[in-house]
């Protein structure tokens, strides 16, 4: 199950049906259909506080992933973790890239899910894996 929470001030920016669809299709692509996660659309201020607390970087970022990777004893589903997305960064990056907020939302969700699934582009050396995989998943989502 994909849980989501969108801060009230950003509810008109985000299509939650698309949010659910992007996350679900990413999990299907990764063959992780029995996994649960939560996606939160928040503010720059909130994500900056989380970034400062957990990564020791005092600046907002576009997306943070918090891996839990535990089994829910009631449902027996694997809970991957939480993805936090900055709505302001979402809009800013969509504008900079010249595409819709919706497409940027897809990019950030796929990116966040890949981090929950154990991929880390910052730790990759040599032949990168995460970013090409991210591109393949996004292409699959928009061509399906």
What does this entry look like structurally?
With 144 residues, the chain is of the alpha/beta class. It has a single domain, classed as Metalloproteases ("zincins"), catalytic domain (Collagenase (Catalytic Domain), 3-Layer(aba) Sandwich). The chain contains five helices and four strands; from the N terminus they run E-H-E-H-E-E-H-H-H. It has a four-stranded mixed sheet, with helices on both faces. Strand 1, helix 1 and strand 2 form a beta-alpha-beta unit. The longest helix is centred in the C-terminal third of the chain and has 16 residues. The protein is globular, with a radius of gyration of 15 Å. The model has no long low-confidence stretch (mean pLDDT 91). It is found in: Cytoplasm. Belongs to the endoribonuclease YbeY family. InterPro entries: MetalPrtase_cat_dom_sf_prd, YbeY.
The total beta strand count reads 4
Helical residue percent? 40-55%
Judging from the principal axes of the Cα atoms, what is the shape? globular
The largest sheet is: 4 strands, mixed
Structural class: alpha/beta
Task: Give the oligomeric state.
Answer: single chain
Count of DSSP H/I helices: 5
Find the CATH topology.
Answer: Collagenase (Catalytic Domain)
Radius of gyration: 15 Å
Mean pLDDT: 91
Cofactor: Zn(2+)
EC number: 3.1.-.-
Enzyme class: hydrolase
Subcellular location: Cytoplasm
Describe, in short, the structure shown:
It is found in: Cytoplasm. This protein has 144 residues and is α/β, with parallel strands linked by helices. It contains five helices and four strands.
Task: Please write out the topology.
Layout: E1 2-6, H1 16-29, E2 35-42, H2 44-55, E3 63-71, E4 78-86, H3 87-97, H4 101-116, H5 130-143
Parallel strand pairs: 1-2, 2-4
Antiparallel strand pairs: 3-4
InterPro entries: MetalPrtase_cat_dom_sf_prd, YbeY
Main location: cytoplasm
Family: Belongs to the endoribonuclease YbeY family.
């Amino acid at each position: 199950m994909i849980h989501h929470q969108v801060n009230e001030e950003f509810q008109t920016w985000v299509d939650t049906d698309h949010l659910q669809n992007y996350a679900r299709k990413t999990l299907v692509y990764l063959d992780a259909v029995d996994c649960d996660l939560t996606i939160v659309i928040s503010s720059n201020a909130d994500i900056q506080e989380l970034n400062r607390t957990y990564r020791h970087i005092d600046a907002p970022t576009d997306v943070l992933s918090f891996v839990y990777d535990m089994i829910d004893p009631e449902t027996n589903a694997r809970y991957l973790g939480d993805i936090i997305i900055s709505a302001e960064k979402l809009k800013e990056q969509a504008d900079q890239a010249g595409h819709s907020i919706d497409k940027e939302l897809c990019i950030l969700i796929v990116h966040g899910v890949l981090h929950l699934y154990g991929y880390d582009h910052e730790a990759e050396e040599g032949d990168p894996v995460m970013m090409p995989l991210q591109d393949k998943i996004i292409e699959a989502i928009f061509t399906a």
